[in-house]
Design brief:
This protein is of the alpha+beta class. The chain contains two helices and seven strands. It has a three-stranded antiparallel sheet with strand order 1-2-3. Strands 4-5 form a two-stranded antiparallel sheet. About 5% of the residues are buried. The structure holds zinc ion.
Amino acid sequence: MAKKMKCYKCDGKLEKTKENIEVLEGSKVYEETEVFKCNQCGEILMDSDQIKELRKKVDVLKIKRKLGISGNALVLRIPKDLQKFYGLEVEDIVEIIPINKHRFIVEIT
Ligand SMILES: [Zn+2]
């Protein structure tokens, strides 16, 4: 991508910066990643390398887990990588937010 890029909306200057971007549309999962941002209207654009970087970050964190059981409750174990990435510790409080029949979000409070 050229160095002096212009915003297609307002002709403002696009600057390289880091933003929290939704990794997949509708996923409500955000990752801090490098983008181009318009210094006038705030429009965000990504080039193909930046999109690839974002994909990589998501793939690293995607892990299949089998549910366990503790007493009557199901237990979802958090892999070490995720634990480290999010700085989670025992007794941390998280919030479970149902989205639809196939998805819920575990939000770190
Ligand atoms: Zn703009």
